[in-house]
Amino acid sequence: MAARFALLLLVTVGAALAALPDLGYPGWQCDASLYQKSKKVPTSAHSVRFSDIKVIGALGDSLTAANGAGAPKGDPLAVILQYRGLAFQCGGDSSLDEHVTVANVLKKFSPNLMGYSTGIGSANVWEVSKLNQAVPGAEAVDTITQARALVQIIQSHKEIDYKNDWKLVNIFIGANDMCAYCNDGENGAHSKAQWKQNVITAVQILKDNLPRTIVSMTGMFDMRMLRQIDHDKYFCDGLHTFECPCEKNKAFTNDLVSAACHRYMDAQLEIQNSGIFDTTDDFTFVVQPFFNGITIPPLKPDGEVNLDWFAPDCFHFSKLGHANVAKHLWNNIVQPVGSKNTIVNLSDPTIPLNCPDTKCPFFRTTKNSLDCSKYMTA
Ligand SMILES: *[C@@H]1O[C@H](CO)[C@@H](O)[C@H](O)[C@H]1NC(C)=O
């Protein structure tokens, strides 16, 4: 008995100690001019150099809180832990050399960047979470509460000059809405119209209260992909029934899932293209659509799903998954609106991390993508 216990302990400790695969980008170097701040702090959201960004924050659900990202293989219970320091949008653990996140890329341009998360903990633990206000289980309607919380923290924090500092707020939301969508479809609380209105309400709170802010919204993904991950994996199958009821609803076919996800994608573009968040010069809203066209999960060379990419529940992203997604999100950020990738190859870890364009060295917005020369500054 004792021996068996000891063996079990060894196996557990062994599993916990085996380093999880990760993806860093050592030695990343862009043109020297791109590391310089603007001569004067820009007043227009369309003239913001990456070195001008002082504050980073995020709104979202468990994918932004990075649930399970650092969970050892075979330990699905660790999916309850929020590994915010590893989160693709706002995590700041280690550095770009070891782990790609949008915050770790930005640190290269703006070494005093603040607001990124480190370590493990929930949104209300300031030392861990900082300005990542994502909450596991959140639907679009919940980003309204998160937006209010973010405003309150930014306006009251001594280290932030909220009127003058440029802020980047990343949003990724929609998976949990989709997990409930099958109940009432386009007639209910998760319809495209309602989802869109909830996003607008949240972003409007940011616009009304946070001058000098760029909102970067990660495009919705096609959740058809999820069903292929847990196919034949009984354990994950069972977990997903609990985590995402609509995923297990046979009447909600892959085509219906896909169509519903695409409605949310359309809503995001409508919000961006309507210009409702471009009515003042010091605020803007941009969609990063790299996920849109992906229908299959990342694969190994032998064609099997690459589970290194996912946390032990086969749903959340692992550390490697966060880094890979972050690379594609960053590459989308530096592409002009209108020519951003709407599909990427998640199976190819060798895709490079791109530099901003020296001819338009700004955070790309709808306006500077149309004509950058209007927004050129020294
Ligand atoms: C994606 O990348 C993998 C690995 O490099 C490659 O085998 C596959 O053909 C690529 N898929 C597409 C659609 O380019």
From TrEMBL:
GO biological process terms held by the UniProt record: phospholipid metabolic process
Record-level Gene Ontology MF annotations: phospholipase activity
InterPro entries: GDSL, Phospholipase_B, PLB1, SGNH_hydro_sf
Alphabetical list of CDD domains matching this protein: Phospholipase_B_like (cd01824)
Entries under SUPFAM superfamilies matching the protein: SGNH hydrolase (SSF52266)
Keywords assigned by UniProt, alphabetized: Signal
Pfam family, one: Lipase_GDSL
Signal peptide annotation: 1-18
Name this polypeptide is given: SGNH hydrolase-type esterase domain-containing protein
Species this chain originates from: Caenorhabditis nigoni
Top-level taxonomy: Eukaryota, Metazoa, Ecdysozoa, Nematoda, Chromadorea
Gene name tied to this protein: Cnig_chr_I.g400
